[in-house]
Amino acid sequence: METKRVIVDGVTEDPAFDEAVALLKAGEVVAFPTETVYGLGGIATNDAAVTAIYAAKGRPSDNPLIVHIGAFDQLERYVDNISEKAKKCMDAFWPGPLTVICHVKPGALSEKVTAGLDTVGIRMPNHPVALRLLRQLDEPVAAPSANTSGKPSPTEGVHVEEDLTGRIPLILDGGATGIGVESTVIDLTLNPPTILRPGGITKEMFEAVIGPVNEPTHIEQKAGAPKAPGMKYTHYAPDAPVLLIDNDEVAVKEALAALHADGKKVALLAPDHFGKLEADWFFTFGDGTHEQMAAHLYDALRACNATNADVVLATVTDKNDMGSAIMNRLEKSAGGHWYEG
Ligand code: TXA
Ligand code: MG
Predict the structure, then answer these.
(1) Residue 338: inside a domain
(2) Residues 259 and 194 both lie in one domain
(3) Residues with a beta carbon under 5 angstroms from ion ligand 2
(4) What is the pLDDT of residue 217?
(5) In what order do the strands lie in the sheet with 311-315?
(6) Chosen domain end from 171, 200, 229
(7) Does one domain contain both 16 and 149?
(8) Does residue 229 surpass a pLDDT of 60?
(9) Which one of 53, 158, 262, 311 has the fewest CB atoms closer than 10 angstroms to its CB?
(10) Is pLDDT of 233 > 80?
(11) Is residue 186 included in any domain, yes or no?
(12) 132 with 281, same domain?
């Protein structure tokens, strides 16, 4: 299959949207940008389209997909008994990087989207290209991140091309995504509401709107059956092993020297000012603020795969606000491993 990547901005009329809509209506899949990461979309009522998504990604089909909508009035077509708290969250944060787990309306969506659960994750993304596509289509779009399963999520059109060329017909390329990590997933069918995956909408932001919410630690999530089934797979990992290290120039300098003495080639992922140290490859986390770390994280992890590094060292940050989402992804990419001198 030939894969076309077309640059679009979502503001200008573009025949690429007609083509995307036609492909989707024919049960094909199309990649498109959101404000978090690129999604690989298919119509969520069409079993064949949903099967095609899992196949293109090489993803196990027991992991449910998020359903994207472009307008509030679409919501009641797919979900039942929306709670007051769920409504408040949607009003406050949609369109935006928030996925709300609700009770699915029986029969309204392909069972392959929900992977047999009686709930569904719904999100209205805040990106001009995604919104234009969703509104023109006026159908629910199931879309996981548009990467090969297990690889870092794509934050640029070319990342999607790297992973899925030959496997999908069309990539709408709207440039770099912005936030850079996936949406917050919150389960509002639980009491208290529970964050299943941290993201751009933080615990603090929810609590200002709906009061106390639960954000289990990674350890707690591991102990029981995974609530967000995606949690049980290795995610976000480049080919070489990733080791976490404190955001400290002296510690990183010593680690580089020790690894080099061991004959290891090292890719360093860290804020700009670490660029002067003698890593074999350096991929930046920007100025090191949470915003810039999130925006650079997946591109930096992905860039490691174009090197022949033996090990990837990545500096950490605190877990306040967006730091929780960043550290969730970094810890997974490292399998929880830290550099130990
Ligand atoms: O930012 C995002 O959310 C991106 C863009 C494309 O919208 N999408 C994304 O989808 O990250 P995906 O499939 O890679 O991640 C979906 C997450 C998984 O952790 C999955 O287990 C969880 O949402 N999830 C989906 N439906 C669920 C449900 N009914 N109950 C619990 N967790 C659910
Ligand atoms: Mg994903």
Answers:
(1) no
(2) no
(3) 145
(4) 75
(5) 242-245, 311-315, 266-270, 281-284
(6) 229
(7) yes
(8) no
(9) 262
(10) no
(11) yes
(12) no
Distance CA 114, CA 186 (A): 15
AA identity, residue 123: R
The residue nearest atom 17 of ligand 1, judged by CA position, is 230
Mean pLDDT, the chain, as a whole number?
93
* Same domain flag for 201 and 296: no
Number of domains composing the chain? 2
Q: Is the ipTM of this complex over 0.85?
A: yes
Residues 222, 247: one domain? no
Which residue among 63, 66, 168, 218 has the greatest number of ligand 1 atoms within 8 angstroms of its CB, and so is best to mutate? 66
Q: What is the CA radius of gyration of the chain?
A: 20
Ligand 1: does its nearest atom lie under 6 Å from the Cβ of 145?
A: yes
120-156 tens-digit pLDDT = 999 999 999 999 999 999 999 999 999 998 889 999 9
Ligand 1 lined by 196 (C-beta under 6 Å): yes
Q: Are 59 and 164 contained in the same domain?
A: yes
Q: Which residue has the higher pLDDT, 171 or 238?
A: 171
Residues spanned by the domain of 311: 242-333
